[in-house]
Amino acid sequence: MTTEPVIAQKGPFAVEVEEGKRYFWCACGRSKKQPFCDGSHEVTDLKPVKYTAEATKKVFFCGCKRTAGQPLCDGSHNSL
Question: Three-class SS string for 30-61?
Answer without folding.
Answer: CCCCCCECCCHHHHECCCCEEEECCCCEEEEE
